[in-house]
Protein: S-protein homolog
Organism: Artemisia annua
Amino acid sequence: MNHRGNYFFLVLFISASYLAIRSYSCSKLTTKWTVYITNAVSDDIVVHIKSTDHDLGNHTISSDEVYSWTFCQKFIGTHFHGYFWWGSRYQSLALADREIMNTCRRTFASDEDCYWLVLVDGFYVSATNQPFPYGWVKKKSW
């Protein structure tokens, strides 16, 4: 086979590999997560959310409102961190890491949810969005 034939098969192989990798959506190779943060304090809170790959920026969550985002879990090391301000109070905590996702994981299905509830006394996480306090685990105080 000549060089042109080798080049053609190389391009064909790379193209097929690229399409095969691209055709796997988040739900086929990895878990798609949606994280919800509910503000249950009487004032606005501000949260800055970021991971090693994504900076979601600052978000103001009014009282009784919910902020959410969706991401694909990486094979190695998914980690989203939140930095919270409520008036003069400040707190930071992991919002999605191995421990939190194990707490929230319910079905090993393609889609999972994780719920955060911000209260006057701290931050609670749950795999379901049941009325407080059923199923909620306190992770950190203000």
Q: What stands out?
A: The CA atoms of residues 30 and 74 lie 7 Å apart. Residues 6-24 have pLDDT under 50 and may be disordered.
